[in-house]
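User: Can you predict the 3D structure for this chain?
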Amino acid sequence: MKRGLLLLLVIIALAGYLGTLIARDPGYVLVAYDGYSIQTSLWVLIGLFLGFFLAAYLLFRSFNLFKYGRGVVVEWREAKKEARAGKLTQKGLTLLAEGEFDRARKFLDGAGENSDAEGINFLAAARAANNQGDHRARETYLRQAVEADPSLVRAASVLSAELALRRKDPAAALTALGSIKLNPYAAELKLQALKMSNDWRASMAALPGLRKLVRTESFENKIVLTAMKAEAGDDAALNRLFKSLASSVRNSPEVLTQYVKSLSYKAHAEPLLRAAIKRSWDAAYVSLYGDSDFDTLKVRRKAAEGWLKLHEKDPALHYCLGCLYELSNEPHMAKESFTRSVELGGSVKSHERLGLLLAQNGELESSVQHLKLALSLD
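Assistant: Here is the predicted structure, written as structure tokens:
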């Protein structure tokens, strides 16, 4: 502030001094060249020079204005178009959220390529077209979105899957998600598509990747049961399938039960059932333990007879022993075990097996009674 004031005072002093000199002696300037001469006062010459420089400056500014002015006008027009496109996009998105799909699409189309988020605009238009049932336009919009902005490939795929699920087309959803790396949301979409498709092979192939992103236990249980029923009798396929399962699914009572039922060679199931029964006594597992093969028959008999010490009044255990004794060709002991199971309130299977065994022994009247009970209890 002080320096500026001092400078101003100096300028005023110099101007006053020069003004005094000019008043006393304005001086003159003579310019001669090739027979021509100009004589004028010093201050007129200075004024001419200043006028010349001012004219040159204005000419230079006019040239720049002519050169760059058109770009400024174009830029202004583009900015105006983008502003209008932004308003149209905003209106279109609002109408889309309100469910006004016809009007939303008109506004989004109006924004067109002038929008500064052209790709996002196309994605929104694709959603509107899908809700209108205009499938050709939807696919066109999705393609244009990726062409306008290649970074939207994943977004377009996820949206395509969403829209496919909305119109109950799981195959299209799986195709859309098949080419991208899944995140939790995309994994949920894929899980929904697999549930719709009822393709257990595709589901089993996808489960390892889905487990890392979403909870799949309930779906996995359902699809595994379907797979095991389909692969019944093919022990190699069943064993591969069972080993590929998560531990929580493998230990599921429904899954283990279906695995044992689907096996043709029951020896594979013996250690699994024995371990499950050891972890937690379960009547269903104990009954299944009686469905034996000759290779593991002795092991099963020994284990089941050992369980009698703690579970002598369990009807499922006596049913299991009856099955094992019958397979061992000891019908008398089998009859005693089945009878004991029935006395303890055993299942339908106890009546059925006892009735069949009595029929083989010629005790037809007792056999008919137990078979009738089996039918009435079923």
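Residues 323 and 329 are 10 Å apart (CA to CA). Strands lie at 28-33, 36-41.
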